[in-house]
Amino acid sequence: MYRCLSCVVMLIAALASPSCPAARAEQGPPGLVSVLVLKEHGVGSPSLAQPYLDRFVASAARKNQWPSARGQYVTNRRAAEAFLDSQQPHYAILSLGAFLALEEKYHYEVIGQVAVTLAGGRRYFLISKGGADDLDACRGKTLASDHVDDARFIEKVVFGGKLLLTDFQVIQTQRPLQTITKVLGGEAACALIDDAQLAELPHLEGAQDLHEVWKSPELPPMPVVAFPSASKAERQRFQESLPALCRNDGEAACAEVGIVDLKTAAKADYRAVMDAYAK
Predict the structure, then answer these.
(1) How would residue 47 be classed by pLDDT, with cut points 50, 70 and 90?
(2) How far is residue 149's CA from residue 275's CA, in Å, rounded to a whole number?
(3) Among positive and negative, which fits the CA dihedral 21, 24, 30, 35?
(4) What are phi and psi of 107, to 5 degrees?
């Protein structure tokens, strides 16, 4: 599954390092700018992104006159918090659910957003192999998903408070493909998937029998945030530089990893989902 998802991994890791937090616990040189990228439910090996990482980080450092820079790519919140607590990075790119969950603890400021092809997480869907073309096909029945590890995010933001996971018999899966094969094989009546998984359905044998019974509103892209460790002047300069990071010498790297939009943003751009999450 995910013919181009390695591109997504490369994109998300474009500001990141392929090594793990435990191996990178040592403090860097003075003036080091560290960037964390947390893409939950990410797939593939971050090491595939190393050439793209080198070019992208070097470009960002040149344009912002950073003495040195490095990043860390992780796929779960435990690893993210370990890096945050030990390294005090200046910036991070976060999955939306993690952004909402960690905001109160780390007090970061939204400075931008990154839209990525096939990264997923912008819209969610309930799909079924048969039955009704509405929620009656799924309500009270088995529901497979690899997205249910954060019930608060799913119920309050994705479902908008109109559905609960307890409305279904949830089967938690570990991989995107496993979620869909549970429905194709009859082990689950329905599946909760995101837009990246939906885009791959035409390439899966038997998926023509699946149909959409519900979809969420479109959610905002992954936010770029700044931590208190970044000075006001540095933060402002980096924020202003975001749209330019994919121009000139950065254009090829962004195209290769699937960045479709990199721009400045503010907390107001995330206010609706933050309010929904806080209810």
Answers:
(1) low
(2) 21
(3) negative
(4) 55, 45
Annotated domain spans of the chain: 5-119+219-278, 124-215
What tokens appear for 158 in the block?
């994705």
- Give the C-alpha separation, 217 to 176, whole Å: 21
Residue 224, classified by CB atoms within 10 Å of its CB into exposed (0-12), middle (13-18) or buried (19+), is buried
Three-class SS state of 23: helix
Does the fold of domain 124-215 match that of domain 5-119+219-278?
yes
- 3-state DSSP percent of the chain in helix, strand and coil, to 5: 45, 20, 35
pLDDT of 238 above 50 = yes
Work out the percent of the chain whose per-residue pLDDT is above 70.
Answer: 83
- Amino acid letter, residue 191: A
> What residues contact residue 106 under an 8 Å CB cut-off, 6+ apart?
84, 227
Name the pTM for this structure.
0.86
User: Which class in CATH covers the domain with range 5-119+219-278?
Assistant: alpha beta
Asked if 127 contacts 135 with a C-beta cutoff of 8 angstroms, the reply is: no
Q: What letter represents residue 4's amino acid? A: C
pLDDT digit string, tens, across residues 152-171: 999 999 999 999 999 999 99
Question: Cα–Cα distances in Å, from 212 out to 113, 193, 215?
Answer: 28, 10, 8
What residues pair up with 191 in beta bridges, in sequence order? 127, 144
- The strand pair at 169-172 and 142-145 is best described as parallel
pLDDT attached to residue 37: 84
Dist CA 213 CA 216 (whole Å): 11
CA nearest neighbour of 43 among 259, 197, 202: 197
Helices (H), 88-142: 96-106
- Assigned CATH for 124-215: 3.40.190.10
